Amino acid sequence: MAIELLSKNNETSQLSAAIILRRFYDADIDKDKFRQETIREISAMLKIHPTGIFQKTLGDGLAYAGNLNYADLMRTNMQDLYLGRKNEKDDNLEKKGLSPRHTNDESWKITMDFTDMFGANLSYALVENVVGFGTIFNSAILNHTNIKNCTFKKADFKYADLTNVYFENVKLEGSNFKGAIGIPEELLSHLEWVDQGTKDEAYVYKGSDAITLDKTKKRGEHKRVFFSMPGSLTASEEALTLFYKDLLEKKNIEAVIYTRDHYPKDSQLTKVKEAIKQSDAMIAFGLKQIEIKTGRLNPDMKEYKEDLWLPTPWNEIEVGMGVMANLPILLVRDDKVEIGVFDKVISEYKIKTLSSAILLKNIEHSEEFNQWLDLF
């Protein structure tokens, strides 16, 4: 019944089924088999469902498994999830007739030995009270992930995106951070390069003490944002770009504005690429540049498009470079521009979108703008 409800289009039925799934962890017969099947079902659903209340309800159910050892959570959408177990206070335990937990007692925590989260998206998730040996975060997205009171021994963080990750009382002994991006500065001092041949080389965390990062560090310090924008602007469009420039500078973020005068007579693309590589983020202004009164987008299309506006072709080139450089990108698009990178179907965790028509006074307080800022 639960599986049937999950497949329905009715959100209430789906949410009910997501909660019912948790009961299978406590099956009386062949408990371990039902636990593994439930985890596999949730994992499969998290591979296809977008971020939202259904995805979160499904994902939060993983915490009820207690044991996630060897679970396949590769490329799952675990954004905004709570993955862990609450630590009851000593007075609550005493009321239940239980003894207070010893500081080093981790037997009550969720175990994630060799759990495979390769390429999973855990941005804005809370991972709490988890113990794992050889846990795989390889190529995972840990952007703004909050990891608290955990022990990850010899975990694989290789090539993960650790931008704005936060560790609080986390043990990382022997964990491998080779090729990871956005490694916090406090973490770098604990890492040691180990080269035992190409296959075994690693950037390993040395020491068994728990690490807690400084959460008070200022965001935006010494950052640079590349502006992808047309060479020709109307007065109102120029005012818009200048507003964004001033807004960023107030946050101590430098705006890198590449105008026509900056383009050299040779190696133009190389120069743009270098400017983007030296930036921490990008804003692409998708403004009306080329008007098509009527026309076809390719010879095979029989229907003609009318009143179509295209942005500057440089947007496509520069945004492509920004994506390859793994930059957080804010698309500020005219409501009439709906093509290429400004197509409404574009959905990437590091790409946020705002309308160019939004009131200037509302930009700084918009959710999309602040989520983009948080990405760098």
Account of the 3D structure:
This protein has 11 helices and 16 strands. By secondary structure, the protein is of the alpha/beta class. It has 3 domains: 1-65, no CATH class; 66-215, Pectate Lyase C-like, CATH 2.160.20; 223-374, Rossmann fold, CATH 3.40.50.450. The protein has a 5-stranded parallel sheet with strand order 11-10-12-15-16, sandwiched between helices. It has a 4-stranded parallel sheet with strand order 1-3-5-7. Strand 8 and strand 9 form a beta hairpin. Helix 2 (11-20) runs parallel beside helix 4 (53-60). The protein is globular. The model has no long low-confidence stretch (mean pLDDT 83).
Which short descriptors sum up this protein?
single chain; alpha/beta; Pectate Lyase C-like; Rossmann fold; 3 domains; five-stranded parallel beta sheet; 16 strands; 26% helix
How many helical stretches? Answer: 11
- H/E topology pattern: HHHHEHEEEEEEHEEEHEHEEEHEEHH
The major beta sheet can be summarized as: 5 strands, parallel
- What's the CATH C level of the largest domain? Alpha Beta
Could you tell me the CATH topology label of the largest domain.
Answer: Rossmann fold
Strand portion:
15-25%
